[in-house]
C-alpha cells in the first residue's frame, strides 16, 4: 500500500515560539488537516498535559462537568492519546458533522468537533506528527500516514512577533531563551541540518 500524506496547517505564533525555543511549548493548538490532494479534512484541537492539567481545579466542584473531569483524570494518569467529542443537536441552525466516521452519540449523530489529548507535556512538531498519524489511523483509516506540518512561520518571523509581544506585555525583564538538546534535535529533523548547525543558527538569531 502506498504511503498517504496528511498536511497540517497551524494557527498561532505561540506554537512556533515554543518550537523555536523562544518560550515554553504551548499547551494547545488548533490545527487544520488536508489530504495531499488539497481536500480538506477539517479542524481538530490538539491539547497537551500542561494545559489540561491546569483545568482540573476549576472543574472539580462543577457537577455538570463530571464526565469531562473524570475523562481528564483518566487521561492524565496514562501515556496515550485520548479524544473528546463535541456534538451539535439536530435542530441546531448550523448543524454540522465531521465528514468521516467517528463515535456517534445516542441520537446517532457524529461529532461536530474533536479534541485530541496528547500525552506530551507541550506541543512540538513531533507531538503534532504523532497525534495526526494516530488520528488518521483511527478515524481516516490511513494505516501508514506521512504527516507534513507546514512551516508557515520561519525562525526570523517568529523572533519578530515574539519580540513585539515581549515589548508589549513582557515588561522590562527579558525572557531567558534556552535551547535544550531535545529542541535542537527536533529542529534538526525539521530543517534537515545537523545539530551543531541548528544550535549555531539559533544562537545567531537572538
Can you characterise this structure?
This protein is of the alpha/beta class and 206 residues long. It has one domain. Helix content is 38%, strand content 18%. The protein has 8 helices and 6 strands; from the N terminus they run βαββαααββαβααα. The protein has a 6-stranded mixed sheet, with helices on both faces. The mean pLDDT is 90.
Structural class: alpha/beta
Low-pLDDT segments, ≥5 res: none
Sheet with the most strands: spatial strand order? 4-5-3-2-1-6
Question: Tell me about the biggest sheet?
Answer: 6 strands, mixed
- Helicity, in percent? 25-40%
Strand content: 15-25%
The SSE order reads EHEEHHHEEHEHHH
**Quaternary structure of the protein:** single chain
Number of helices: 8
Mean of all residue-level pLDDT scores: 90
Distance between the termini: 45 Å
Number of strands: 6
C-alpha Rg, in Å?
Answer: 19 Å
Q: Looking at the structure, what is the overall shape? A: globular
Count of folded domains = 1
Structural descriptors:
six-stranded mixed β-sheet; 206 residues; alpha/beta; 6 strands; single chain; 8 helices
Entry summary:
The protein has about 210 residues and is of the alpha/beta class. The protein has one domain.
Draw up the topology in text:
Elements: E1 4-10, H1 13-19, E2 28-35, E3 40-47, H2 49-53, H3 56-59, H4 66-76, E4 82-86, E5 113-117, H5 125-139, E6 145-149, H6 155-169, H7 181-191, H8 195-205
Parallel strand pairs: 1-6, 3-5
Antiparallel strand pairs: 1-2, 2-3, 4-5
Helix pairs in contact: 1-6, 7-8
